Amino acid sequence: MTEYEIYALFNGAMTSTAIFGAANIFLLWVAFRGVLRIQDQGATVFQKVLSTIFSLGIVFLNLQTLAFVRVNFESTAFDLSQLPELSDRAQRFVEFVGAEEVTFSLIPNNPILFVWWIAVLVILLGSTWLKPSD
Fold this sequence. Notes:
The chain is mainly α. It has helices spanning 3-41, 45-81, 88-97, 111-129.
C-alpha cells in the first residue's frame, strides 16, 4: 500500500466517523432537552429510568465514536510506519501520533475530555434524578 492510499483510507474513515459524531452530538442535545423537560414538568420513575438509559446510551455512543477517531489515527500512523520510505509529512504524523500497537478504549486519552464526559454524565443523571431547587 502506498502513502497516498493510506491517507485516502484515513480520510474515508474520518469522514464516516464525523457523520456519526454529528448524529451523536444531536442525540446528546436531545438528551439534554429531555432532562430539561423532566426538570420543568416532572416525570414518573419509569420516565426517569428511560431517560437514564437513553442518556447512558448517548454518552456510550459518543465515547465509542471518539475511540474510533483514536483508532483511525493510530492505525494510520502504524500503517505509515510500515512503509519503506516516508515523506516529511508522514514522518511528522507518525512521530506525533506514535506507531505503537493500535488499542481500542472507551476512556478518552485526553484528561480534559475525560473530565468533560464525566461532567456531561453527572449533569444528565443529576438533572434527571435530583429535585430542582426553587
